[in-house]
What we know:
The complex is a heterohexamer. By secondary structure, chain E is mainly alpha-helical. Chain E has 20 helices and two strands. In chain E, helix 12 runs parallel beside helix 17 (414-441) and helix 14 (328-358) runs antiparallel to helix 18. Chain F is an all-alpha fold. Among the domains of chain F are: 265-503, no CATH class; 714-930, no CATH class. In chain F, the strands form two sheets. Chain F has a two-stranded antiparallel sheet with strand order 1-2. A two-stranded antiparallel sheet of chain F has the order 3-4. In chain F, strand 1 and strand 2 form a beta hairpin. Classes of the chains: A mainly alpha, B mainly alpha, C mainly alpha, D mainly alpha, E mainly alpha, F mainly alpha. Bound molecules: sodium ion (NA) (2 copies).
Amino acid sequence: xxxxxxxxxxxxVLAALWLLLVNTFTAGHLMLGLLLGWLIPFATASLWPxxxxxxxxxxxxxxxxxxxxxxxxxxxxxxxLILGRxxxxxxxxxxxxxxxxxxxxxxxxxxxxxxxxxTVSVLLSEDHRSLIVHSLDTGxxxxxxxxxxHRYEAPLKAIFESC
Amino acid sequence: xxxxxxxxxxxxxxxxxxxxSLGLLRLRDFYTRLHGPxxxxxxxxxxxxxxxxxxxxxxxTLSLHEILVTLFLFMTAPVSAHLLAKAALHLGVKSLAxxxxxxxxxxxxxxxxxx
Amino acid sequence: xxxxxxxxxYALVAxxxxxxxxxxxxxxxxxxRILGLxxxxxxxxxxxxxxxxxxxxxxxxEAALLIAMMGFVGTVALCKYLLRGDIIE
Amino acid sequence: xxxLVALVIGTLTACGVYxxxxxxxxxxxxxxxxxxxxxxxxxxxxxxxxxxMPPVISSVASGYTDPLPQALVLTAIVISFGMTAFVxxxxxxxxxxxxxxxxxxxxxxxxxPR
Amino acid sequence: MxxxxxxxxxxxxxxxxxxGIVLLALRNAxxxxxxxxALAATLALIxxxxxxxxxxxxxxxxxxxxxxxxAPFGIVLVADRLxxxxxxxxxxxxxxxxxxxxxxxxTAGRHFHVLYQLQLFGLNGAFLTGDxxxxxxxxxxxxxxxxxxxxxxxxxxxxxxxxxxxVINLVGSTLFLFAVxxxxxxxxxxxxxxxxxxxxxTPPENLALxxxxxxxxxxxxxxxxxxxxxxxxxxxxxxxxxxPVAALFAIMTKVGTYSILRIYSLMFGADGGPVAxxxxxxxxxxxxxxxxxxxxGAVAAPTLRQQIAYLVVSSVGTLLAAFALASTEGIAAGLYxxxxxxxxxxxxxxxxxxxxxxxxxxxxxLESGPPMPGAPVLGALxxxxxxALAGLPPLSGFLGKFMLxxxxxxSPWLDWVWGVVLTAGLVGVIALARSGSLLFYRTLSSxxxxxxxxxxxxxxxxxxxxxxxxxxxxxxxLARYADATAVQLLTPQTYIDAxxxxxx
Amino acid sequence: xxxxxxxxxPFAGAALVALxxxxxxxxxxxTAGAVTAASLALLAPLFPLAGAGxxxxxxxxxxxxLGLDLAFRLDGLAMLFAGLILGIGLLIVLYARYYLSERxxxxxxxxxxxxxxxxxxGIVLSENLIQLLVFWELTSLSSFLxxxxxxxxxxxxxxxxxxxxxxxxxxxxxxxGFLLLxxxxxxxxxxxVFASADHIRAHPLYVPMLLLILLGVFTKSAQFPxxxxxxxxxxxxxxVSAYLHSATMVKxxxxxxxxxxxxxxxxxxxxWLVSGAGLATLLIGAYTALFKHDLKGxxxxxxxxxxxxxxxxxxxxxxxxxxxGVFHVINHATFKASLFMAAGIIDHEAGTRDMRRLHxxxxxxxxxxxxxxxxxxxxxxxxxxxxxxxxxMFFAEAAHIAEGQGGWLLxxxxxxxxxxAVAYSIRFIHDVFFNGEPVDLPRTPHEPPRWMKAPVEVLVxxxxxVGVAPGLTVAPLLAAAAGATLQAPLPxxxxxxxxxxxxxxxxxxxxxxxxxxxxxxxxxxxxxxERTFEHLDARRLYNALIRTLYALSRALTRLLDTGSxxxxxxxxxxxxxxxxxxxxxxxxxxxxxxxPGLPLDPVSLLAGATLILASLATVWLHRQRFxxxxxxGVVGLIVSLAFVKFSAPDLALTQxxxxxxxxxxxxxxxxxxxxxxxxxxxxxxxxxxxxxALVAGAGTGLLAWAVLTRPYDTIAGYFLDNSVxxxxxxxxxxxxxxxxxxxDTLGEITVLALAGLGIYALLENLRLDAPDRDAxxxxxxxxxxxxxxxTLTQLLxxxxxxxxxxxxxxxxxxxxxxxxxxxxxxxxxxxxxxxHGGAHMRARLSGATQPVIAAGLAxxxxxxxxxxxxxxxxxxxxxxxxxxxxxxxxELASAMVFDLGVFLVVVGATLLILVNLGxxxxxxxxxxxx
Lengths: 163, 115, 89, 114, 504, 930
Ligand code: NA
Ligand code: NA
């Protein structure tokens, strides 16, 4: 079963994406989507050594909402910074110590940090224990680190690292 | 009403696209310039895509495939930014903010020559 | 209203396009240029979406999708060259 | 619009020609790429310029542009892609066999005017 | 459409393609099996070409509508006399060159047989197509296959020659596309017969445009044919590649000459209305200059293979001079000369291979070397090949030249054609006599232990030379066929009617 | 058939001889003799007919459309020559058996000799002029082999090449002459030529035709100024010289004069050209012969001189002179063959041919000496020998002509020539057989073997027999041959020793006396000659010509072909520009058409300007390769945008994908190319290229403008109308690709497959130095696969593949299709390679891209072939709508299967290229490990 259907979640996600892609919501396309959703992971199974474990679907949804909200809000802030006086910016590199241990979670965290306004994940330390973040306009580095850990790292840990 | 919503979305989208690129032009070092495109622009394109989705869903049939482009951009933009920053650190590109030694090209840094 | 907004949007995106290109040409260093190209790709996505709405034809969607995807691959490859020289190793 | 297109095609050709006449393999490859851009655009516009008339049959379309040049360009793009790939690898092979990247395998010292 | 015979025109195209695919699938099979398959597929082309010769000779041009779409909308294959003729020459050269390749060339690198079959696919496709853009596509196929074959085995000079060959041809392909698309942009069609019809009705305001396209096209074909000053790729490429490939390449320049003949008789020929005789004034001087330069190059060549390559250049000049006469006699002369020069130069390249091996470190440099093992046989074959290349009796080259000179009698170019052809013939004799004398007569003592050539080393070359003897003996029927082909080419309406259906 | 067989026999004999030589030297000689005899035996039964003045013609079709028949003619002239060729040939075969040494290959010699004999026979027995020419050229070729028989000798090789070059030139001229003659007459057959003699002589092309034919004749017969090759041909073994220079090779030219005499002679041009050349040759040959120290050299120049004599006779254009010419052909053949053989014997026995060392041989070989003396006397024109008779006729004709024209010069000059002939004949006899003791000979000479002398004996007997009793011996043969030559009733002549006291006899007497006198004064003459004419030699001119030819060839070839690609591209561009611009210089075409254009919008203007700037930037920065790649990326992006803008979504998708794959490829390559490109120093070159580029750009731009501003009719409507109904798809571009023009697509995927396979083959054994630091000297970043990139890229793979599937499946109806889907799939996988590295991927994915290519091609071909089963041509498509429960309506088109084939090939080839190029890196690892 595991070999025949390596990633059931992925299959469902892909089927859903297929329906989005074709913009047509018919039974035929659902079947086709499921077929592709099965076929693609099956054909590329060898590239997926570890299967992804996702817990806490509500947390995940809440997390997505938070991120989208942060993006929209933050974008306006960044826009203001850009349209303002560039010379008054206070850029800084900030090191965020990491509690996350899986590559996927770390990557998603880094991604989130980059997507949200004013910060870009620049570098992951060699031991994967800290992330260096570049901030466009830094008030207090410690607050920023705490915010990141609270808003993003904690939920990610709950979603991906509790199995 | 729909017209207003669409116009708003289009204008916001185009506006953010503009601002993001303006940041790319105006800001003073590479690391700050990196911020413009990765965020403002993604939001800009995101808005435009939503506008497109709304437009086609109302003018033709339900159109949600724009979500896919958004998903794609949201998944890739941070990776691009990350790699760009990594490359800039590796090359020792001038930074306004002091570069922490662990990130710099020096003997402790990630760009240090391999033994 | 949309009809008046679209030319403005075109103008904004066009300027964005221009700014990105200027950064690409001016540099001064390689990551800046790559960033310029990457942004140019994203601007193009915006332009295509706008064109789709303007012409009322959804047929340009796939081009936008592919640009998003190809722009990413291009950026990754260029960065990897700077970092490693050999991009597939 | 036609004048702009003609100007673009001309520029691409000129750049392609200039680069193809360079002495190292890399600019030559760039030049060939430029030439293929130029000629692909050229073939394409032989079907004349049309905005918003993609040749996809639909009930709402206001008209269609000439699809044939598009099909030809597709063929030409794929062919020139194959050719470009080949010439790139050949440039590497030449680099390995000739010891440098001059198209004629010349040494830089010999090449320099005295 | 049920019998295989009804698909005859496509068979010479499909067979090598399928063989190529099968050989690709069997790329790890024992080389004996691969060789057997490759040989069977190549030999089968000979009866196929024969059947086409017979059919095209008796029934007029065969038209095969690919995808069952009518011309000019779909692509058609047109197997007229000329196409069948070219296919036969290709098949013969290919078969013997392949036999020679079994001596070890085929295992010196990857995919020799696949590339070889696909090269034949490209060649046959180019000769058969009735569509100008499709001609471009098949040009590209045969070029890419030839790149692979040219470089097969590697080596410093070969790689350099290959790079030059590839780049110059890429520029040529670009030119081809500019020309074809301009023609489409003005006439709105790609089918060669349809183009002929449309071009003949060109309004004056479009005249220069289509002439530009027509002349650019000529530039492309001139490059492929190695016409002065676009011949420079040839000596390097042919001189540096392996023998069987060089032999097969003997047909490559003929693709260019074929295209010139086809396009400028069908589309820009005497019946072309405002675009009639587009090449008049260009082709003959260039052909004669090429003929002369080729011969001088053969004199100056430092190596045997380069000498043969320059003789190929010269033969291109001869061929095109014949075609440039644009008369039945002239074209027939060219058509008779074409297989001769193709088979003859192929034989010479194949023969150069054992000669080079038997000379050890001296290779094919035209200088005194050690006494050659197997000199009597190789020398005799060289002598015959030299006779063929110089166009001396009793081999077919003499007849070809005779036909050309005879055809020129009525031409305003008479003095030039005769002067150049006869003088070049003499120069060729002088150059070849020197080479033969240096290679076989003037020997240095040497303790190099050189391999004695085996019969398999020279048999394919000898067999090719044998075909030239056959061409001499059966010159009557061949000349008759060539005459009829020339007549067919000079009445393009036959072709047009066959493709588009008779028009009022 | 008989004549044909007789000609063919020696050619077949050549092979037989070569075979026979394997079993020994004598079998080779015997076979050669037998072949010669058989050929003679075949012809002999026909001789009586020819002797009776009849002409036998045997004719077979060869190339009738060209007027080329295999046509043979046996008349008196042909009989005479065939007899000489085969008769003397037989003697030569016998002689050579003893002449050649153990080291010489008998098989080769006799095989060449047979080839030559067959060629000669072919010449004299041809009725068709072109066929005659074929054999004519064959004599040049086979004589090349014979002359260079002792190939280890420099002079043999040179002599052979010179003979070939000169007679080859003549051959080509003759071809021209015959072509003109055939053109004038309307046939190449001699019978027709003879029938239109008057027409020929009156034709405007007569003079060029005559010049060309005479060039052939003069070169072959060694007439001045083409005589110089003949002495150098003496490097051949003496049997060859004896054969070639008595009865055969050089006589071919004379034969042709005789053969065409009735058709061409009798005009002032003929008279002056032929007799002028003959007279000059006669004198120069005779004069030079006197001073040759080499025995064969003397004989060679004497041959030249006698050929001049014969030519002069034919040139005089009187029937009697022609008869004399034919007669002298016979006589010269017999005495000269015997003299050469005698010289050969002397050389063979004494080891040298130098007359400054050969003296007093009478003592050692009296018998041979006697034979040689008789033959030499015949050559000198001593009474009672055959040479005397024909020389008398010659003198008589010279005097007769002089009477008519009232000049004394011709008789005086021919008498002088006669005197010189006497002098060199005396020298031959006196110097060699008497005149003191031999000087420092390598061997002690003695009489040769019995059978070596026999041929000489036979010939000398003939000389005497003819000389004493011409009426009983040679008369019928001469009559027949002369009759055939003239193609008219014979003039009155008497073959007799005594014609009474006439001018000719007086001239003979003077010549004899003067000859003796000249020989007596030879020492001062030799000294004078050495100071004056010794260095006058046409061979120098020939050598200078050849040297010039080589120098010119090398210079011209080097001038054009410098081995530079840039020059080739430059030539091609110049050619294209010349061709492309020419039609616009004259004619009514105006550049702009009448079609109204589209309005220009600001966004397009900006995009266009960006593209132009990016292009210029790429050119400007091309030495900063990495930056140039980025600007190139902009160009590609905007080109794609242009496709989008102008309604070509399929193109945009394809261009975008190709663009990225190309950039990845270029990056892969950039790593191995030199980091710091060479600087360009040559400003002139930059300007030149810049101008060419501008003109080319202007050309294409104007061309595009010209087309874009014109209306046109297109076949496109058909595609739009039939796409849905006939092709089953709404995306017309895709339907064109997989259906209307599926054959193009089949070709194009083959190109891609070929590119992949070619690259695969190229990469084999490719080893490149992989730099361990970048251009700035910085070490590479140690983090090969950044985790964040690797993890997230992995998530993108299924998404990208889904997109690829989407694009593939919808292509028939909406933008997309096999190509684009294939490229997207390849890019999706390449993305993984970028993120995880080749090693990681190879461990997980089979690298078997080649089967994918094969499968894709096979799928495309077999889809096309399937239509055969339905009695339709290759690639005929079909489609239908299937209704499946639950799933619903489902369209299936065979063209979609074809498209799947396209997809597979694109995926396979692209991956094959990229992955293998990426794997080049492994060679670095292996190198480091070693
Ligand atoms: Na991005
Ligand atoms: Na398509």
